[in-house]
Amino acid sequence: MALLLGKNKSDLKDSSKKRGRQKISSNHFSDLPLVPVRGTVIFPHTELALTFGRPRSIAAVEAASKKNNLLCLVSQKDAQIDRPGEKDLYSIGTLAKIIRLYPAEEAVYALVKGLSRVEIREFTQDQPFFRVKVKILPEILTADNETQALAAYLKRSFRKAVNLGKSVELTTVMKLMTSEIDLSELADQIALALDVSTEEKQVLLETLQVKKRLEKVVSLISHELKVLRLEQKIATKTKDKFEKSAREAMLRERKKVIEKELGEADEEEQETKELRLKIRKAMMPREVVVKAKKELKRLSRLSPNHPEKGYIRTYLDWLVELPWSKSTPNKTRIEKAAKILDEDHYGLDKIKERIIEYLAVMKLKSRNETGKQSKQVKKKLSSGQRKEVGGPTILCFVGPPGVGKTSIGKSIARALGRKFVRMSLGGIRDEAEIRGHRRTYVGAMPGRIIQGIKNVGTRNPVFMLDEIDKVGADFRGDPSAALLEALDPEQNFEFSDHYLEVPFDLTGVMFITTANVLHTIPPALRDRMEVIRFPGYTEDEKFFIAKKFLWTKQLKANGLGEKEVAILDEVLKEIISRYTREAGVRDLERNLAAICRKLARKTAEGKKMIKAVARTDMRKFLGPTKFTPVLAEKKDEVGMATGLAYTEAGGDVLFIEVALMPGKGSLLLTGKLGKVMKESAKAAFSYVRSRWQELGLKKDFYKSLDIHIHVPEGATPKDGPSAGIAIASALISAFTKQPTFKDVGLTGEITLRGRVLEVGGIKEKVIAAHRAGLKTVILPKENKKDLEDVPKKVLKDIKFIYVSHMDQVLKVAIKPASKTSRQSPAN
Question: Most exposed: 331, 580, 606, 732, by fewest CB within 10 Å?
Answer without folding.
Answer: 606
